[in-house]
Amino acid sequence: MSKIELTAPCNFALEAVLAREIRDLGYETTKVEDGRVNFETDEYGICMANLWLRTAERILLKVGEFYAETYEELFENTKKLPWHKWIPRDAEFPVAKASSIKSKLFSTSDIQAIVKKAVVESMKQKHKLDWFPEKGSKYPIHVFINKDKVVLYIDTTGYALHKRGYREIANEAPIKETLAAAMVLLTPWREDRLMVDPFCGSGTILIEAAMIGLNMAPGLNREFMAEKWDITPKKLWEKARDDARGKIRSDVKLTLQGYDVDEKVLRVARNNARLAGVENQIHFQQRDMRELSSADKYGFVVTNPPYGERMQDNKSVELLYKDMGKVLSKLDTWSFYIITAHEGFEKLFGRRADKKRKLYNGMLKTDFYQFYGPKPPRAPREEKPEENIE
Ligand SMILES: C[S@@+](CC[C@H](N)C(=O)[O-])C[C@H]1O[C@@H](n2cnc3c(N)ncnc32)[C@H](O)[C@@H]1O
Fold this sequence. Notes:
The protein is an alpha/beta fold. The chain folds into two domains: 4-155, VC0802-like; 177-218 and 227-378, Rossmann fold (3-Layer(aba) Sandwich). It contains eleven helices and 14 strands. β13 and β14 form a beta hairpin. Bound molecules: S-adenosylmethionine.
């Protein structure tokens, strides 16, 4: 096993949640930057990070970094890197992605072409070959340039990690799985507590909560780019998958409830839960939020209500938020965690949040409003992890 530097890009504002996930997996984070967390592992860590990280978008293997202001510098420095260490002679190695921010080199198509040429030259020297058939496994190269600093990666993931493999059909405004998982991880919810999503749509938040509560690795039902790589052979992936299957908690029965006015989206939600293998853990039912009531105490509402982004929706959404405030105020021992882009939310809801956290839902700037209920008696494990996440 060798020391490997990995970088996990994530949604802006989720860096601290992701960094905690990485540390919980047992790896050391080396640097937390805007939209990415760097950490050190070995080959097994590539399998573990892909299988387990709930809030990362992908896992990139860092090949090297340097400063470049000219194409010549880009070419020469890229050529010097040890590409042959990772990429075998029969591999396909497209420069799949290039991005450039505030840098002298900004034409992404030129950057891609130069990097490709330089990698071929480097590989020619080391593999003693003149021509590469590129018929083998794929090693997609990513180039990231920020203020003239070039970082070169190979993508170990393939299609993005938020695609867990359980969401076949989506409704109009589904929340990304990574963001839904982050919302749950930002609450002190534990597997013995009730969670309700009164605007559950296709069920993403509750499905992610179920996987967290059961300690189910989010990547168990999908494949990854590096499964066909020499440095991470099949055996290693089997070991990581077996280990993950062994860690699923079969002793837990969760209380997760999802409601929505739309019966159609509930069908999608039930199917998604089935595909994720958590259908027995979530109760979905058609119900208007205005009819929500519960005799249970100390529950959690974690939800992504409509935002009213179009002008014509605004009035009805504002009314909905007012009603939500009235309905939820009756659940006086509960905690509420609500994400919305509507800036007047607290006023309409009728209560100031104990904490407000900026999150991005796609490109949309939203806030995650957190209203803490009282702690239940005799619950020594109760804690508020979000207070550790700055
Ligand atoms: C932004 S979507 C939720 C998306 C969900 N988080 C997902 O991942 O699919 C809002 C949902 O609220 C539902 N909704 C709108 N008004 C409602 C009401 N009064 N009561 C319950 N659900 C409602 C819509 O049908 C829609 O599915």
